[in-house]
Structures
1.
Amino acid sequence: MVDDAELLSLAQQLGAALAQQSSQLSLAESCTGGWVAQCATAIPGSSAWLERGFVTYSNAAKQEMLGVGADTLQAFGAVSEATAKEMALGALAYSHADLSAAITGIAGPEGGSAEKPVGTVCFGWAHRDGRLWTRRLQFAGDREAVRRQAVKTALQGLLHLTLGTEFMK
């Protein structure tokens, strides 16, 4: 299982890289409920690089706060790479940040389907320079395990985006 020390270590590494570049971060979280932001704000000095976070649990919040299209939600659902992409882009559009991460998924124990079982999590990472990645992953474990793995993946993706290295290629 992913532990708190691992998440905080990733957040520290990310914060150091962002501070070195004088870059700022915005976050759009659904199934993680602000957990990535919590990891970031656990780091002293994070106010220098964490610009803002959006917890958009409902579809209405995704639309109203991040500009996710109703047509995207209708066609692909809240848990989709298309929605994660629009969430990440919205987190940039509605902030002053240089890069963003978005997470939307089904942490369980209910809510899964044959097409999108419990543990399905979609991610989006975006940078103002035009770089954009999305991923759909399947995590095992209970609700907390799924959420911890999602937080770790989001932080890893942000670190790679900040450092300009490839991630999950």
Note: The two ends are 24 Å apart (CA to CA).
2.
Amino acid sequence: MSLRRSLDALYGAAGWMAAAFLVGTLVMVLVGIAGRFLHFYLPGTDAYAGYCMAAAGFLALAHTLKRGEHIRVTLILERLGARSRRWMELWALAAGILLAALFAWFSARLAWQSWTFHDISTANDATPLWLPQLSMALGTLVLLVALVDELVLEAKGLRRPHAHDKPAFNE
């Protein structure tokens, strides 16, 4: 399997995991609602809905980036020439890599510390916090890989603009 296909599979897997956690959020909310109507209480549904929502958000970062769906402010870029625009893209990707690396490092460190100290949720579910924190660490790590991938593609001149890179002019 080629490196490109492996990376695309990684981004796709992260996207599918994000989708699964989004469904998990829906299930937890529906269980909470059903519990109110049917007079039963399942402890931790609110906390688990929050964990699933956070996991969905972080795991979707790389997939969203690679599909060109991240919000971009192109006010400056659209006024630059081709060469200046390329350098600005390289600078922005390098800055993104630095920020993603810091975020990945500190989120992985947080999950490790929570595991080491046996830190648990203060909600009534008492979930070990390293479990939901893993999705944040994994999501930011995959985002870091995706940003490095984008930088390499941009540096080689192989980065393809997405069809919706042009701003939409809505009334």
Note: The mean pLDDT is 90.
3.
Amino acid sequence: MMTIEEFKKKQTNKTRLIGLDLGSKRIGVAICDDRQSIATPFKTINKTNNNELIDELNTIIKENNIKGIIIGNPINMDGSEGSSSQSIKDVSTNIGKSIDIPVCLWDERLSTVGAFNLSSQLDINVSKKVKNIDQNAAAFILQGAIDFLSN
């Protein structure tokens, strides 16, 4: 696992990244363009076990020429790390050991709320909002990280 600053040093121009919103039952996936300017919701993976998650991520990475992974870290609003953050760190460490590209955690405070509010502004009906909330949250996380990386 590396910091966002270390992650930035490992990235080159024309590099696509994947963003993950890790939930206990569903994982939201987003991918950015190779210029790292726009994060786009990609899909939601129903989590069954870690091996299947790794296999699914490897497939997405190969098919989309992904060179780095940004994983949302659910830090508490006061900046402290709770049990959810520790759980995400454990899964992220497992992903990092199993997939041979850089992995970085990104503060995801309010990403689900932000994704839900954004879809509200787009006048999307509630059932679609709920159905796509995980991948939209992943896009929100990835967009925040790529905005940081570009500055």
Note: The mean pLDDT is 85.
